[in-house]
Amino acid sequence: GAGVSQSPSNKVTEKGKDVELRCDPISGHTALYWYRQSLGQGLEFLIYFQGNSAPDKSGLPSDRFSAERTGGSVSTLTIQRTQQEDSAVYLCASSWGQGTDTQYFGPGTRLTVL
Amino acid sequence: AQSVTQLGSHVSVSEGALVLLRCNYSSSVPPYLFWYVQYPNQGLQLLLKYTSAATLVKGINGFEAEFKKSETSFHLTKPSAHMSDAAEYFCAVSDGLSGNTGKLIFGQGTTLQVKP
C-alpha cells in the first residue's frame, strides 16, 4: 500500500516568505508527527497530532511555526516569515496509535531559505 | 528528560566484518528504544525496537540490539556487513510510560561506511 507522502519534495524560498509543507499519512493512522533534520541540530521533534488535535507542540521552535491536521488525515506545517536557520529537511511520520507503535516516515521536504 | 548519545559519527568496516554501532540513553522513566536507518535522499526506516519485552531484539536485514539497563545502552550489531548496509543509522528513545505520545528523541546519527 501507499506510504507516507510529502510535498513538495524540495522548496526554495526567499527569507521573509511564508511556506506550507504537506504530509499525507498512511490511511487509517491516527497519530502524525513532524520532525526536522538539520546539519546543526540533527533530528528534532516538532509536533504530534492524535486525530485532529495536537496535544504536544513542545518542539515548535518559535511562533512562526504552526501546523494543522484536518479530517484526521492530511497535515500542513506552515512557517511564516522564513529565516535562513529554517533551512532543513522536514520529515513527517504516522503510526496507528501512539507509544510503541512503529512510526512510518515520509521522504521529507527539503527547505532552502535564501 | 530523555537523551541519546551515539558514539562515533562515522564508522567504517570491511565487507563481511562485524558491525557495531553504539548507543547510550538517558531516561528518568522506562524507555522504549529504537534504531532507524536512513538511505541517501530517503526517509527513515525502522530496523528494530525495544519495548520492555525481550532484551535482545532482532530486526530486519540481520541486525539486532541488546537492551542493557545497567549500562544504559542499546548497541546495534550485525555479524557480517554487506555493501548495502552503508547508510546513516539513528538511535532513538521515547517515553515508556502509559499514555506517552510516542515522540522520538534521536541521537546525532552514525554514518556506516562499508569497504569492499
What is the topology?
The complex is a heterodimer of chains A (114) and B (116).
Chain A: E1 5-7, E2 10-13, E3 19-24, E4 31-38, E5 42-50, E6 53-56, E7 65-69, E8 75-79, E9 88-95, E10 104-105, E11 109-113
Parallel strand pairs in A: 2-11
Antiparallel strand pairs in A: 1-3, 3-8, 4-5, 4-9, 5-6, 7-8, 9-10, 9-11
Chain B: E1 3-7, E2 10-14, E3 19-26, E4 31-38, E5 44-50, E6 56-58, E7 64-68, E8 73-78, E9 87-95, E10 105-106, E11 110-115
Parallel strand pairs in B: 2-11
Antiparallel strand pairs in B: 1-3, 3-8, 4-5, 4-9, 6-7, 7-8, 9-10, 9-11
In summary, what is this structure?
The complex is a heterodimer of chains A (114) and B (116). Chain A contains no helices and eleven strands.
**Beta-strand proportion of chain A:** over 45%
Radius of gyration of chain B using CA atoms only = 14 Å
> What is the residue-averaged pLDDT of chain A?
93
Number of helices of chain B: 0
Fraction of residues of chain A in helices? under 10%
Overall mean pLDDT of chain B stands at 92
Number of strands of chain B: 11
User: Which pair of chains forms the biggest interface, and how many residues does each contribute?
Assistant: A-B, 28 and 26 residues
Please summarize the sheet with the most strands of chain A: 7 strands, mixed
Q: How far is the first residue's CA from the last residue's CA of chain B?
A: 41 Å
Structural class of chain B: mainly beta
- Portion of residues in beta strands of chain B equals over 45%
* Uncertain residue segments of chain B: none
Q: What structural class should be given to the helix and strand makeup of chain A?
A: mainly beta
Helix/strand order of chain A, N-terminal first: EEEEEEEEEEE
The low-pLDDT segments of chain A are none
- H/E series of chain B, N to C? EEEEEEEEEEE
Largest β sheet strand count, sense and barrel closure of chain B: 6 strands, mixed
Distance between the termini of chain A: 37 Å
Question: What share of the residues of chain B lie within helices?
Answer: under 10%
